[in-house]
Amino acid sequence: MSNDCLFCKIVAGTIPARTLFEDGSCVAFPDVHPQAPVHVLVVPKQHLVSLAETDREHTDLLGRLLAAAAEVARMQGLEKGYRVVINTGHDGGQTVGHLHLHVLGGRHMGWPPG
Length: 114
Ligand code: AMP
Ligand code: ZN
What we know:
The chain is an alpha+beta fold. Helices cover 21% and strands 20% of the residues.
C-alpha cells in the first residue's frame, strides 16, 4: 500500500467505490468518467506503479488480472466483445500511478465507429 495512492485507498476502502468483482488479487469497480457504456477498472490489491514496473516475477498476478477482466466482461454481459487497455506511463496516458486495466464495451470500440 502506498499512502498517497488513490487506488490503494479504494482497495483499502478509505475511498468508496462500487465493487463489481473481487478476489484475493484484485478489485474491479466502475470508472468515474466512463468512456463507454461499460467502463470498469481492474486494480491489483498490491501497489505496482504501472506495467513498466512488472517483470517475470509478476506473471501470476498479471494472468490473474487478465482473467478477472474476462470475468468482469462476462458479468457485464459483453458477449459481443470488449477492449482491455493498460495505459502505461506518461506517453501511455496513465494518470493514476497504480497499475490498472480498463475494460471497455457496450458499444463498438473499433474504427470506424458503429
Ligand atoms: P488512466 O488514465 O489509465 O491512469 O486511468 C485512470 C482512470 O481512473 C481514469 O479513467 C479515471 O476516470 C479513473 N478514476 C479516477 N478517480 C477515480 C475514482 N475515484 N473512482 C473510479 N475511477 C476513477
Ligand atoms: Zn496504489
